[in-house]
Amino acid sequence: MPLHEYSCVDCSARTEVLVRTASARPAVRCGKCGSxxxxxxxxxxxxARSELDRLRALDPKYKAMVDxxxxxxxxxxxxxxxxxxxxxxxxDDPGDPVDF
Length: 100
Ligand SMILES: [Zn+2]
Known about the structure:
There is one protein chain. By secondary structure, this protein is an alpha+beta fold. It has 2 domains: 3-40; 51-86, no CATH class. Helix content is 24%, strand content 14%. The protein contains 3 helices and 3 strands, in the order βββααα. It has helices spanning 51-57, 60-71, 78-82; strands spanning 3-8, 14-18, 38-40. It has a 3-stranded antiparallel β-sheet with strand order 2-1-3, with no helix packed on it. The longest helix is centred in the middle third of the chain and has 12 residues, at 60-71. The termini are far apart. The protein binds zinc ion. Zinc ion binds at residues 8, 10-11, 13, 30, 32-33, 35.
């Protein structure tokens, strides 16, 4: 027997009801306040989603937050740092060569 979940419109409490058949529409009352104004919640089920689908489903405000944080990192504009570099032959004191 399927277990249906209902949410009370008046008090937001959740009530679970066992129904005999999937097409049955039982008269459901809120288990907490007794209201008959209840909405059936969709049945829980699992969806296998790719990481990309999850990222696409994110609220756009998170993308803006990530972009903000990203823009503060050194990766955001590497040329800013490359432009500050001094060519080896132009350096006053290039120091000892580094042996990699
Ligand atoms: Zn209620």
